[in-house]
Write a structure and sequence with these properties.
It is globular, with a radius of gyration of 22 Å. It is of the alpha+beta class. The relative contact order is 0.12. It has 12 helices and 8 strands. Helix content is about 45%, strand content about 15%. It folds into 3 domains: about 80 residues, no CATH class; about 120 residues, Butyryl-CoA Dehydrogenase, subunit A, domain 2 (Beta Barrel), CATH 2.40.110.10; about 150 residues, Butyryl-CoA Dehydrogenase, subunit A, domain 3 (Up-down Bundle), CATH 1.20.140. Helix 8 packs antiparallel against helix 9. It binds flavin-adenine dinucleotide. Flavin-adenine dinucleotide (FAD) binds next to strand 1 and helix 12.
Length: about 400
């Protein structure tokens, strides 16, 4: 195992740094600094995506023929690290990070040729329709039905927690096309036009007041059979393939470490770096460094032909728990200034009803305004993309043989 970078990789890092210095504008950096959730608002995510697409760096994991970079695993890691260090806003994960790989892995040539360029151009903005009110961790229990009607399916049912459904024009969705066999059988992976008659989207507000998630209802929605990805009744294979991308997607270490550095800087500037807080920060930093080392080790294994396997579960648990811990330290540091609710001084992941256009002055230091919404939003990190209890179950079975 070799964890150090080669000369070529270091020169690649310089190239990425030069690009970020040139193209990541002060406005985009300032926006990202004030973010309160893991999602940048659509206009910002798309602005940054356009810049990355122009550079040819928007979808490193895709095959080169569809716009991928052909980078090695090490180059992709370096890219992630530099994006985190520079404070770049994240792209919306549902198109490039999820629907794209599903189409690349299981879509027809016609689907790839049609949809992949539209993901990159932003013509299509995607949401993920997996969870239902009674099918979250137990996803195979989903019941939204798709009934055969010649060259169409007729869909009825609902999805919940659907991030960006109110902004998306397309949903990749799991529907039930056969209810007679085992729950995992009879599921189909379907692409649904969100503007089709019979689709209704209702907001679900986060604890922070942001509108990012939704409940989506389908009443007799007609979907062409050409929109099936993979085979009818075999959508579970596509869904599982996609979940690996959702969980094992990106490196947590670099972003966590830059957050620790930022907390230390704020504490120093505010004269609040007393011994107990400094010790907590040092502990968090050591844990983030350990996670980064594990991620580098995993990267080295993948470069040698390995797969993430159950280690993706380990990274997800450690990454999200450490992230939540950092939001708690930030809360401690902000003290009373964590109390005022002033989303109009932050970059929320979606509209905060009642606060649009408000221009009352900020209360407290700039560093404190995002602390509480970040704390509240980050509780979701251990729930989505497979809850941490489920990940622990996977680890205990796969690693410990329990
Ligand atoms: C902010 C946010 C964004 C989301 N975005 C999307 C999206 O865009 N698209 C989408 O399809 N879904 C989305 N989800 C839904 C998410 O995938 C589900 O919330 C998640 O899978 C958990 O399902 P559930 O909420 O139904 O909880 P449940 O499955 O009902 O679980 C409730 C609790 O029981 C625990 N539990 C359940 N089963 C077990 C078990 N076998 N062993 C041990 N513990 C168990 C869970 O860990 C959890 O603590 C989002 C969720 C959130 C919070």
């Amino acid at each position: 195992m070799n964890l150090s970078f080669t000369r070529e990789e270091e020169s690649f890092r310089d190239q990425v740094r030069a690009f970020l210095a040139d193209k990541l504008t002060a406005d985009l950096r300032a926006y990202a600094k004030r973010m309160t959730s893991v999602y940048a608002a659509k206009p910002i995510a798309m602005e940054w995506q356009r810049i990355l697409v122009a550079q040819g760096w928007a979808c490193p994991s895709w095959p080169v023929e569809y716009g991928g970079t052909g980078w090695s695993t090490a180059q992709r890691y370096i890219f992630d690290v530099e994006m985190a260090r520079a404070g770049a806003p994240p792209l919306s994960p549902m198109g490039i990070g999820m629907c794209g790989p599903a189409l690349i892995g299981h879509g027809s040539k016609a689907q790839k040729d049609y949809y992949l360029p539209r993901i990159l151009s932003g013509e299509d903005f995607w949401c993920q329709g997996y969870s239902e009110p009674h099918a979250g961790s137990d996803l195979a229990a989903l019941t939204m039905s798709a009934v055969d009607d010649g060259d169409h399916f007729i869909c009825n049912g609902s999805k919940i927690w659907t991030t960006h459904a109110h902004e998306a024009n397309m949903m990749f969705c799991l529907v039930r096309t056969d209810a007679t066999g085992k729950p995992q059988q009879g599921i189909t992976f379907l692409l649904i036009d969100m503007t089709a008659p019979g689709v209704r989207v209702d907001p679900i507000l986060m604890l922070s007041g942001e509108h990012i998630q939704n409940a989506v209802f389908f009443t007799d929605v007609r979907v062409p059979k050409a929109n099936v990805v993979g085979k009818v009744n075999e959508g579970w294979t596509v869904a599982k393939y996609l979940l690996e991308f959702e969980r094992g997607g990106s490196a947590y270490g670099p972003r966590l470490l830059s957050r620790v550095r930022s907390l230390r800087q704020i504490a120093t500037e505010e004269g609040l770096l007393e011994a107990d807080f400094a010790r907590k920060l040092a502990q968090a930093e050591a844990e983030a460094q350990a996670l980064e080392a594990a991620e580098l080790q995993l990267m080295s294994e993948i470069s040698g032909g390995g797969t993430p396997g159950i280690k993706a579960s380990m990274m997800k648990i450690r990454g999200t728990e450490l992230s939540q811990h950092l939001t708690e330290l930030a809360l401690e540091l902000a003290g009373v200034y964590a109390a005022p609710f002033q989303p109009h001084h932050t970059s929320p992941g979606g509209p905060v009803p009642g606060f649009e256009g408000l221009n009352t002055p900020r209360v407290g230091p700039e560093s404190a305004v995002t602390v509480t919404p970040k704390y509240l939003n980050d509780r979701a990190g251990s729930i989505y993309a497979g809850s941490n209890e489920i990940q622990r179950g996977i680890l205990s079975k796969g690693q410990l043989g329990l």
